[in-house]
Design goal:
This protein has four helices and four strands, in the order E-H-E-H-E-H-H-E. By secondary structure, the protein is of the alpha+beta class. It has one domain. Strands 2-3-1-4 form a four-stranded antiparallel sheet, with helices on one face. The longest helix is centred in the first third of the chain and has 13 residues. The protein is globular.
Length: 91
């Protein structure tokens, strides 16, 4: 099992999980309940994480994630960063 994506926005993590599972890539969400600790705990501890269960499907999941955050969507990504929302993508 490998970590693919980390975000303080648990809804974003859930949406990405749903997309990947549509491609038959099983995922697990970790730290979902710790989102309420943001501000009290370090972001690296409280952020929601998306893990790919099957290591053999990890590379395919990375490609799909790259497509989700393709250049035409980076403007939204940058706007979220300017608002102080942190994104970690293990590409």
């Amino acid at each position: 099992m490998k970590r693919l994506y980390t975000d303080q926005n648990s809804l974003m993590v859930g949406n990405i999980k749903n997309i990947l599972e549509g491609y038959e890539i099983k995922c697990v969400i970790k730290n979902f309940m710790l989102v309420g600790a943001i501000g009290e705990a370090p972001p690296t501890v409280a952020s929601t994480e998306l893990w790919v269960v099957d290591d053999e499907k990890y590379d395919r999941a990375k490609e799909i994630l790259k497509d989700i955050f393709s250049e035409d969507r980076r403007a939204v990504h940058r706007l979220l960063e300017l608002r102080g929302e942190q994104r970690v993508i293990d590409l």
